[in-house]
Amino acid sequence: MAIWRKIHETLRGEITEGLYKTGDRLPTEKELSERFGVNRHTVRRALAEMTAEGAISVRRGSGAYVAEGVVDYRLGQRVRFSQNVTELGRTPAHRLVRSEARAPDDREAEHLRLRPGAEVLVLEMVSEVDGLPVLYAAHSFPAARFPRLAQDFDETRSITASLRRYGVIDYTREWTRITARSPSRKVAAQLRQIESQPVLRVEALNLDMSGEPIEHAVGWWASARTQFVV
C-alpha cells in the first residue's frame, strides 16, 4: 500500500473512531509530516483524497477540518432527493451529465412495460450535497410519454417538477434494490472518489398514482458520504 494511502486510512479511521469530531481541526501538514515521517507532499496527497471523499474540508490559511457527517438518506414510499437533503438542513444540487433517447435494454423494457419499438429517454446526472457529489445515476423514462423531459429538467433542475409538466402530480416507489459494488472508472470520476472505495448500487422503480411505471433508475452512491435510513 502506498504511504499516502496508509496516512489516509489512519486519519479516516481516527475520524470514524471519534478522535476527531465534526468541526475539529486536523494537525497541520508539518505536524502530520513529523508524525508519519514523510514529506509534506505525501501528506498533501492523503488530505486531497479525504477532501475529495468529503471527509474533510480545507480552509485557506486555516487548515483542514472534519466535514459534516454522512448524509442520512431516507428511503420510503416517496423518495425525493432535494426534499430529503433540504430537510437535513443541507444544500442539494443536480448536474445533468448527458441525455439520450434510445432503445431500452431488457430490464428497462420489462419494468417500464414498454411495447416493441418504444424508446426510453435517459437522463444521466450527478446529485450533490453541499457541493460534494453523492450520487451518479441514470434515470430512464418512457420517451413517448415524456418527450421533452431533458429540456424540462434544464429549466426546473428537478425531476419531480419536470414530471408535473406532464400531469404527474405525485408518484411512489414500487421497489428498491441495494447492492455493494466496486465503481467503474467512470463512476469513480463522477463521484470524485478513488476506485478502491466501494459504492452502493441502487436500482429503483417509480409508479404514477394510477400504477403506471414512469421511471426506472440505476444509481451509484458514494458509500463514504451516504447512509440509508429505512
Would you give an account of this structure?
Keywords: DNA-binding, Transcription, Transcription regulation. This protein is of the alpha+beta class and 230 residues long. The protein folds into two domains: 64 residues, Winged helix-like DNA-binding domain superfamily/Winged helix DNA-binding domain (Arc Repressor Mutant, subunit A, Orthogonal Bundle), CATH 1.10.10.10; 159 residues, 3-Layer(aba) Sandwich (Chorismate lyase), CATH 3.40.1410. α1 packs across α3. The longest helix has 14 residues. The chain is elongated, with a radius of gyration of 20 Å. 31% of the residues are buried. The model has no long low-confidence stretch (mean pLDDT 92).
Strand arrangement across the biggest beta sheet:
4-5-6-9-8-7
The share of residues in helices is: 25-40%
- The H-level CATH homologous superfamily of the largest domain, spelled out, is Chorismate lyase-like
Q: Over all CA atoms, what is the radius of gyration? A: 20 Å
Which CATH top level class of the largest domain fits?
Answer: Alpha Beta
- Indicate the CATH architecture of the largest domain: 3-Layer(aba) Sandwich
How would you sum up the global shape?
elongated
Structural class: alpha+beta
Distance between the termini: 36 Å
